[in-house]
Description:
Elements lengths: L10 E2 L2 E2 L15 H7 L1 H14 L3 E10 L3 H11 L8 E8 L2 E8 L3 E4 L5 H12 L3 E3 L15 E5 L11 E4 L2 E6 L3 E10 L5 H17 L8 E2 L10 H16 L5 E11 L6 H11 L4 E6 L9 E7 L2 E6 L2 E12 L4 H13 L1 H20 L5 E2 L4 E4 L3 E11 L6 H8 L7 E2 L1 H11 L10 E6 L4 E5 L3 E5 L2 E10 L5 H19 L2 E2 L3
Parallel strand pairs: 3-7
Antiparallel strand pairs: 1-2, 3-11, 4-5, 4-14, 5-10, 6-9, 8-9, 8-22, 10-11, 12-26, 13-21, 13-25, 14-15, 15-24, 16-17, 16-23, 17-20, 18-20, 19-20, 22-23, 24-25
Helix pairs in contact: 1-5, 2-5, 3-7, 4-10, 6-12
Amino acid sequence: MRMTSSLFPWKGGSGRTKWPRAWPPIHASAGPAEVEHAWDPLLATCQEMARARGIPQILSLSQPISGLDPLAVLTRQLGSLPPNRSSSYCYLSHQAQGERVRLLGWGSLRQLDLSGEGRFQAARAFVQALQPHVHTAPGNLESPSSRQERPLCFCRFGFAPRSGGGAALVLPRWQLLQVGGELTVARLNLEVGPESDPAALAGQIAAFFARMQRLSQAPLPGWELQPPLPVAVAETPLLARIQKALQAIQAGSLEKVVLAEAVDLALPSPPPIPSLLAYLEAHHPDCSVFAFALESQRDFPPQIFLGASPERLLSVWQGRVQIDALAGSVARGANGHQDRMLAEQLLRSPKDRREHQWVVRSIQEALGRLGMEPRISPQPRLRRLANIQHLQTVIEAELPTEVHLFDLLAQLHPTAAVGGYPQQAALQWLEQWEPFDRSSYAAPLGWVDLQGNGELVVGIRSALIAGKRARLYAGAGIVADSNPAQELAEIRLKLHSLAQALALQPLPD
């Protein structure tokens, strides 16, 4: 069953625990003792729950702070880590109603490995088991202005159940939410155990919000572009795989398969991740920019999966579902006239319309297996990005009350946009002929709240970075009348964008 939105489901022997109707905001001018004592009633109530249940509870507290930029904070956090140490973090940003929404989650208070055949079911169980034990204070420490102004879990899946490490579902130690570049909501998730020291916990709360206040004037990361890194695509084996795919399609075992290419680069130095993310936001404003890292073992550089994805896989909000079908593409033109000509060519292309229709059909079938009735726009529209344009169809539906976001995700992934059609036949073909592990390339990643709302994108136009090494990923959909040379050119175009970003250097402070 989908969890309800009640934040305080626990009842003690005499009924539901009562929270005060409102908590006064903590101002930056308040003294340390004043700040710490403001949290005493919340901590006492949460500790009472922990003792009654016999397990730690999580108190989630938020405070709006003006001028606090998530990327500036990420720069300071990464710079403050001791040598050879790393931390888990997740950064997500996208455009919503004309404003940039930025999310940063830091650290790991609770974490679930997302590998294996039952990964989507395990993710649902993790969130639903966590929900009754996370408590947020009511009143003016909360704001309903954004979907993400609540405790969030961040998730990164692998493309395949046994894809390489790094796939996880994480409740961060703290998170930041910025909408439109003005006010940022800082949120701390704090474990309160039966024997916790309330004074020590109050001190942690005060120290966190005081540090966020100090960072509110931290400068944004800057960059300067260098010549793009050379990307050497191994043409002969890639063209051979395209030919094998066409043979399978002509034989009738497949309608479509999406080939991926991975290119390894040696970097002159570890890339400045916050500067790289700022660059991607500036140059790909219509994409979802992301970075996901897990704490690594000592002396090993963390693996950071990042990119700028044009494709929202799934959005669920209060039972309403939106899914993007994105397939069929052509380059942008050098001028307005050429751009319009290419767009018209894409809209009229039988090959691209056929490729796009397989994606729409795969999504429609996935929703049908859950008893959902999708609403599909009759014709695709153009999705124009900085250097490429796609065919896009938006699909909407209502989520049945017994179906969780992760149940839907288990049916959807991988859609024909990143795997192929029919789904299982395409996956079997990729298992046989794709010569590398996709890791999280083309896999779902994003956020989910404790009530089952969430938004996930597809991890395409992406790279996996570890120290001075990077693996860039790009792909192309193959259908019956695909032209191998054109598919190779499309993959090159997609790889070039990230290669340019990886060449940047940070500006000195």
